[in-house]
Amino acid sequence: MTSHSAVGSAQKDRAATIRSWKRRARRLTPYLFILPKIAIFAAFLLYPLVQAVLLSFKGGAILSGMRNVGFANYRKILDDDLFWIGLRNTAWYTVLVIPAVIGAGIGLAALLNQQIRFRGVFIALLIVPSVASTVAASLIWNYLLQTNGGLFNAALGLFGVAPVNWLGTPKYLMPIFVAVEVWRGAGFYAIIFLASMQSIPSHLYDAAAIDGATASQSFRLITLPLMRPALLFSTVMATIWNFQLFDSPYVMTKGGPGHASLTIVMYIYDRAFKYDSMGMAATMSIVLLLIIMCLALLQLRLFHKEIQF
Amino acid sequence: MTVHRREFLKRSGVVGAGLAAAGMLPRVGQTSTASAQESIRLTVWKAPHGAGDEQFFQEQFDKFITDWPNVEIEFRSTPWGAWAETYTAAFASDSPPDISYMPNAYFPKFAEAGLLVDFDTLETVDLAAWKPLFDERIWSLGTRGGKVYGLPFLQAGISFVWNKALFAEAGLDPETPPATWDELRSFAAQLTKADGTQWGYGIEDNSTGEMGNYVPVPIVNYGGELTNEDDTEWLATTDGHVQGLQIQVDMILTDKVAPPLGTFAGPEIFTAFADGKIVMILCYSSNLQQLLADRPEFQIGIGMPPAGPANDYSYGGVGYWMIAEKSAHRDEAAALTEFLSSPDVVNAYMTLTGLFPARTDVQPFADDPVQNAFAATQRNFLRAPSLPFDYFGIILPEYESALSGQQSAADAIAISGEIINERIKDGS
Amino acid sequence: MSAAGAGVFQSARNPRGAKTKHIAVYLALVLACLVTAGPIVLLFATSLKQTYTRAIDFNSLIRPDFANYRAIWTELQFGQWLMNSLIVAISVTVLILFLDSLAGYVFARMRFRGRDPLFAVLLATLMVPLPVTLLPLFLFANELRLINTFQALIYPALAYPMGVFMMRQFIQTIPDELDDAARIDGMSDFGIYVRVILPLCVPGLAVLGLYTFMSQWGSLLWPLIVSTSERTRTIPPGLATIPGQFATNWGLTAAATVSSLFPMLLVFVVFQRFLRQGFGGGRSTKG
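^ inputs. structure came back:
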């Protein structure tokens, strides 16, 4: 009797030990799984970010050496006209582009959601600009907007209108970038929204139709609300991305003429590399970071009900 | 459906992982001193003066290599529009290009930071033999603090050109260009057609960063030098300077004798000149070289820019071959630098681009009347400030703002002056 | 795929209105397609002729001259750029899909100390603009002697946390019961990840993969600075260096631009199928 139970309890002990190892291993699993990502994240995003914050308290040039200046850079920003110009341009652009590109995406998705033939062909043609990189898109639009012989002015010429200096007229510039981004992005958002629309069960629409709802009512009260997650995600993504507008103005106008198309990220870049004031650039980027964070959080708060954090 | 998808994902996963692995493997780095014992790699960076740079320099390097078989040379054509950022980033790192082509206006900050080789320290280079080959002015523009930082390669100065045929058409004497900026303004009025097909004068926009060659000229002609002798103060803040900018603003916005900036994008304004849409313009000989070759019947007038009340300076600069202090192969780099400044290479490049050699003993255009006329204008350049930061990047957007009507000329001059003086004070 | 919502225009009240609306839909789509595809056609036409100006004309479509397409391989280094872009984009995409889905799974399902603060940190850095980290990153890469290498192009891109956020969102919509069922069957966490979660994530992965590929394909700033020779130059900085100080060869530029579109187009077409499976949640039951 005793030997049997002795063996049994030894086995039980081992089993218990193994179970506790397994438990410990499972407790380690989360850490192991995220380790590669976190390690890379820490090395290539967090560390440089910390360096940038440290840089923001420095003045001088990267080539000739930098020295600590405390909060002097932050104070200087208030006086820096170009920073505010860049911010204003960027804000104006973002306010225009988000509704434009999201709206265009929804519109196109709604159209594609109809019972039509050749849907695949339409989609293919609509996303063609999306596959163009921003550099390619900017080159294309540079080409179209050419004052002498560009497509737009040629079209205007047909109506006897004098050629317009598109890229040389300050007030047209941000709207032009909006157009470039809508042209480039609408198709991509449309696909996301289309997928979202198509996952809405059709019996909801049938029920609504029976109740006498019009097309627009169905759209407003069924489609849009059920697309909320996709809409929210896209809007926040689009805001963050577009507030960092750089590629188009860099390729098309280099911030000109004068400062008419200077965006905040362009100015940070100029400050860092052209003017070689790394510290000041870092300072501005920290301020920009705070602004973007506020914007994103604001949007999330507005849609709070739909998101569980 | 499910099976296909899984297969596809699996396969693409494998391919992707393979490529990822390929990307992750340590690549052979910049200096391949690993395998061949003495194989040396030199990198040469230069911003382009024409579309043929890459090919031209490859050919030249092939010649160099016959004498130096263990040297491998890599050439990179860097865009002008991103000049400051490209070279700043490279020199801030441990691997700047061994040899860089640097214009006199851009190199000071690298020299001051100790990032360029002082040629006096190069044992293999006999500076005493090189110096007499160049004008005093050209040689000294490549020095800073008494140290020689580069061998001069080419010089380029702007000229004033006009369309003789259109002058005659408008009743002006085709052999007499305007002598002053005021005169130019009134000439331009007579040369401009109301329907926009012909403009009296033209100013290149800043889309390729080239506006700084032209717009400062009248500013200096009216107001005097941009900086004081030792570059410790930016002087371009007086009423005279404002006037120099104002007259250009007026020609575009008020008189409407010059097209609004951007009507012709960047270098296309020179094509417009060659096509008779613009009658007078400031430009480099290289801007027109190909255009004139394609239009043998074009009657071009070439002269010095008009004068202002203060002086009659033109604008020009010199480009140098400079060596990075961090270069691992100084002797080879020095030899290559000397090769690139040799008569044959210089002659060939100038013939290709239509620009002018820095060295006085090379005459590529002996028989070319047009080039000789251009050559005659390569003088009397305004003293380009030697500041340890990119001042063009500061003043040009402000001036452009004024030229496109976003702010007044007075504001543009004042603001740019303020910023620059502050930076001089900051020491950065 | 059922076109749910198609009935929107077919309301019971006005069947004839539905027909005109139907035509209007086609018209609108055709117009939209003209706007999107038109400029590309124009660009293509430009690529088929030798031109230094930007004059618009379609003659070249009738008498095409493909010289530019040969020239991009010889005069420019398009082949090199293409190869490099592919290496970078594909590597980053594959690795991101793996790393981010794994991390997303952890954040969605597992509880561990520091989870929420860590996630908050990841989220916060989403909004960091590139130039902030650009030069410190460059100097850091330099210290590691990784300038002008593919690692320098790939690693920093892997750090971006958006995919984690996205996949977490996605995985949260997958019912827990599936996990539990699998665990009862004795599957390890990793097994659950591979066999249960991943397959249901395909639409999310498709979107993430597409987005990652697209942003790597078009990335300009970082490669411009870190690629100091043609050996690692990708397409966008390559394209950006074509317009020279002197007259731009627009025919050549157009040819290069058009050529850069094809690989992306291919990827898009392939991934598009997965997108159609529905965004906003893996549905384990057909609904």
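DSSP finds 14 helices and no strands in chain C. Chain C touches chain B at residues 52-53, 86-88, 90-91, 93-95, 135, 138-139, 142-143, 145, 147-151, 153-154, 202, 224-225, 228-230, 232, 240-241, 243-249 (CB under 8 Å).
thumbs up if we can close this ticket
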